[in-house]
Design a protein that fits this description.
Distance between the termini of chain A: 38 Å
Strand content of chain B: over 45%
Largest sheet of chain A: 6 strands, mixed
Strand content of chain A: over 45%
Largest interface: A-B, 24 and 27 residues
Oligomer: heterodimer
Distance between the termini of chain B: 36 Å
Helix content of chain B: under 10%
Order of helices and strands of chain B: EEEEEEEEEEE
Number of strands of chain B: 11
Number of helices of chain A: 0
Number of helices of chain B: 0
Radius of gyration of chain B: 13 Å
Chain lengths: 114, 113
């Protein structure tokens, strides 16, 4: 049973436009969400996170939106740059459970075309 | 600061062979983790160590053992490799748990034939 779903395996956008990556979760106990970015042959790197007490968190060009009622979060990248081309993983955790376990989605490959 | 280092980068094993994947971090982090990533899949937690001297099972621990040798080092051992263990293995560390940012190593690509 996949508790964190990224239903779009890939996304292609033009440089300068907005990229929107989506993530859905099924476990209502999840209350902390993260996005990681991964380039080929490298380990993932942390991008941005959001706690369930918020519905938005912004860091430069990256904004994560959380809709708890829909169990949905999205990552917005504005403006998109070619260097943003990577696989993006959504991850979730239940802070009242284990502080050491993240559940990852399968990832979305973002390609930003010059 | 090297961050999180992993050795080896690549390894090919025959079924039944054993090996140990090494991981070290120089950030004085308390928590360390081992994940595997398979094609079309997200990362799955194999084992973690919340702090020096402790280890716990993650989502997919079968066929693996771990050792938290000291605060810096966390190794993953495959006692009898199986083709199903063909994967890319990532080690990560964080100050305390996942509410602090996890830093990942570059990965070890393991093939079991």
């Amino acid at each position: 049973d996949q508790q964190v779903k990224q239903n779009s395996p890939s996304l292609s956008v033009q440089e300068g436009r907005i990229s929107i990556l989506n993530c859905d979760y099924t476990n209502s106990m999840f209350d902390y969400f993260l996005w990681y970015k991964k380039y080929p042959a490298e380990g993932p790197t942390f991008l941005i996170s959001i706690s369930s007490i918020k519905d938005k968190n912004e860091d430069g060009r990256f904004t994560v939106f959380l809709n708890k009622s829909a169990k949905h979060l999205s990552l917005h990248i504005v403006p998109s740059q070619p260097g943003d081309s990577a696989v993006y993983f959504c991850a979730a955790s239940h802070s009242g459970g284990s502080n050491y376990k993240l559940t990852f989605g399968k990832g979305t490959l973002l390609t930003v075309n010059p | 600061n090297a961050g999180v280092t992993q050795t080896p980068k690549f390894q090919v094993l025959k079924t039944g062979q054993s090996m140990t994947l090494q991981c070290a971090q120089d950030m004085n982090h308390n928590s360390m983790y081992w994940y595997r990533q398979d094609p079309g899949m997200g990362l799955r937690l194999i084992y973690y160590s919340a702090s020096e001297g402790t280890t716990d099972k993650g989502e997919v621990p079968n066929g693996y053992n771990v050792s938290r040798l000291n605060k810096r080092e966390f190794s993953l051992r495959l006692e009898s490799a199986a083709p199903s263990q063909t994967s890319v293995y990532f080690c990560a560390s964080s100050e305390w748990g996942i509410l602090n940012e996890q830093y990942f190593g570059p990965g070890t690509r393991l093939t079991v034939t």
